[in-house]
Every structure is written in structure tokens, then in C-alpha cells.
């Protein structure tokens, strides 16, 4: 790890009116700056505090919220700082939260306390600055100035170069099964400050509180803490280097790794060989049920798939998840005003669009726009109930068409495509309510 002169290294922090106010110390700075001194640097701490507040998140086992963190630091920071500098700080156990995976199953998150998230964030900012430049250029997950979109573009370039088969490799429960000894040996290769090494190990082994019981953590790095993605990249950098050494074309985003080759036979050989490397060197295993050697347009990567014409398109699984969320928001039994429903849709759709607007096959967005408006017409027709005829007349529908629509034997979903509802509730109506459009014609 590179060594740089410390800025105000010998100045500890006090809390007087504001956070991390400096007070001069009579002690002299050490000759060589240590990592922990960088972690408790005032500017680094203020940046960490801003990041934790921006990211938000649920409380840990102590119940403290993000809003309460600044006041807690005003009262306790001098003591916490002394513990960090002496290597005696002990984090609290994480709170286990189980959330359903989009493809089925349960993902286990470990939510650290807000204070521990703040310390992890401060540590992350220092270590990432030192480590990131040493990582592979083909690793894109959880790194500054890198994104999933860049990973997908790199995949397209491999296909254009003639690598039309992909080894789609899924690591089995990676974050739950990281070997602590192997991970810490990688940390110690880069960090000589024993206080930092001890702190990272304590974060890894802080334990999990679940249903009132404390569980010991002997492996894994809990998803939910700021430090976990960096430690994952550190661990899997060994995989990246092995793939580079073998001359493979690959893209990795966290624990999702695709290797591009020119034949299915070569892909099967690569999958067996890399699986053996992972088990013997990193003590990790490949999920055989979810891993495969196949054509890229038959697999999905980061929510996208690549067509046989090498265009980016939204994967069928991503569309299925999108529709499931829209159905949840527009359930006919919710009984909320249409303005409330549209506001909720808007929040979800704008975030989804920011990511999936990257697609090059855009007719899918147009179809989704039409489907969403049909859901809303269905919702309103059900909500109107017996007054449906009067509502149609109020919106300019002719008496005959309004009568035929209101007296139709068809259900709300079938009628949501009827001429009467299309006239009464046109696209402009939903646009005035604030419903965004997924499909926008290129200028």
C-alpha cells in the first residue's frame, strides 16, 4: 500500500458545537502514516457521514436511525476514536433481514448498526482509494466510475470479435460462504496496519442477531454493510487475475462472471477448470444448476440479454419482475385515489427507466407503456363501479358507447381495451397526472 504524508495527522478530534472539530495536540506525528489515521481524518469522516445519511437504510440491532447518528457522534466520538486508534473498537452484531430473490429463494442481508455503517464507510473510502487501481479492468461491480452498463458494452464487444459462446458462471451463495482466513490473508497483503486488520476481522465475525438469538459468523461477509462489496472485489480479484493469465475474455460484476469463448466444447472445458480453481484456491463453489455454457442471447446478464444481432435488450426475467411490481402497485383492491397510484408508479418507473433505457430494442418499452395504461384504466373502471356510465359521460363519451360499455358482460381487464375507456382515459390524461413514458422517440 502506498504511503503518503498525513494531513494534520497529529490533530485528534473533539466535539464542540460541530462534528469532528480539531484541537491541537502536543504530540508529534509519527514518521510514517498508518491507515487508521487516514480513516479518522476529519475530511474523510465528514464525507462518510454524508454518504451514510444519503444512503439511508434501516436501523441495526440498537434501533438507532440515520437521523440520530450526528447527535450520537457529538456525544460519543472522542471515545470511539480512542478505541479505533488503540485497536479496541468492537462492532455490534448485524441484524438479519431476509428478502425474497427475484428468481426465487431468500437473500439474507446483514444490517449493521448506523454507527458501524459510518465506521465501515470511512474505512471503505480509504481502502478503495488505495486498492481500486490495482483491480482488473474487466471488473465493473461496486467500483468508482464503473457501472453495469459498461460491463454489458464490454460483453457486446466480445461478441463482435467472434466470441459467440458464454460461460455464465454463478457462484453459490458467495457472500455467505467467503472464507475468512483466505479473505484476511488477502487483506494483510495490502494492509500493514494491525488495527485495520483487526477491525475488518471483527466486522466479519461480529455475529448475527436473528429472532432474538445471536449466531456466530465463521464465514461470509454480510450483504448490507458498506465494506462488503470492496472485500468481495478483493477476494475475486484472484479469479480475475487467473482468467487474465489464461488469456480469457471475461466480464465480472461482483459475483456475476461471464467468460466469452468461441465454441461450446471450449466453454465446457473452461467451466470445469475454473470451478476447480475456485474450490481449490478460494474455497468457493460454482452453482451448477445456475451456471451453463450457452449462446449469449439465451442467457441474461445484469438484467439484459444480447440478441443474435448483438443488440442489447431487456431480459424476459427483468420484464417479468417489472410487471409484477406494477401489478402490486395497481391492485384493484387497494382503494386509493388514482393520483396516489400514479405517484407511486412514477417513483418506481423513473428508477427502472434510468437503468433499462440502455436497451437498444426499444419496442419493448412501447409495449410496456401501453400495458401500464391498460392497468390504470382497469383500476379506475373497477373503482368507479356502478357510476361507470356517469363517469364516461362526464369525460365526453357518447351515450350509446357509454351505455354499451357500462352494460357489457366483460370484466374490467377486457373492458380496459374498449373504445369507451380509451376515449375517456387517453394517454394525455395519465400524462397530466404525472405518469412517465418509458418509450421516448430518439431525437
Short description:
With 443 residues, this protein is of the alpha+beta class. It has helices at 35-39, 42-55, 69-86, 114-131, 148-160, 174-177, 180-190, 194-204, 228-245, 264-282, 316-329, 338-356, 363-384, 388-394, 399-406, 412-415, 419-424, 427-433, and strands at residues 13-16, 18-22, 94-100, 106-111, 165-170, 208-210, 213-215, 249-253, 256-261, 292-294, 304-306, 312-314. It is 49% helix and 12% strand.
Characterization of this structure:
This protein is an alpha+beta fold and about 450 residues long. Helix content is about 50%, strand content about 10%. A 4-stranded mixed sheet has the order 4-3-6-7, with no helix packed on it. The chain has a 4-stranded antiparallel sheet with strand order 8-9-5-10, with helices on both faces. A two-stranded antiparallel ribbon has the order 1-2. α7 (about 180-190) packs antiparallel against α8.
* Mean pLDDT value: 89
Measured on Cα atoms, how large is the radius of gyration? 27 Å
**Beta-strand percent range:** 5-15%
Oligomer: single chain
Sum up the overall morphology in one term. Answer: globular
List key phrases describing it:
443 residues; alpha+beta; 4-stranded mixed β-sheet; 4-stranded antiparallel β-sheet; 18 helices; 12 strands; 49% helix; disordered N terminus
Present the secondary structure layout.
Blueprint lengths: L12 E4 L1 E5 L12 H5 L2 H14 L13 H18 L7 E7 L5 E6 L2 H18 L16 H13 L4 E6 L3 H4 L2 H11 L3 H11 L3 E3 L2 E3 L12 H18 L3 E5 L2 E6 L2 H19 L9 E3 L9 E3 L5 E3 L1 H14 L8 H19 L6 H22 L3 H7 L4 H8 L5 H4 L3 H6 L2 H7 L10
Parallel strand pairs: 3-6
Antiparallel strand pairs: 1-2, 3-4, 5-9, 5-10, 6-7, 8-9, 11-12
Helix pairs in contact: 2-4, 7-8, 9-10, 14-15
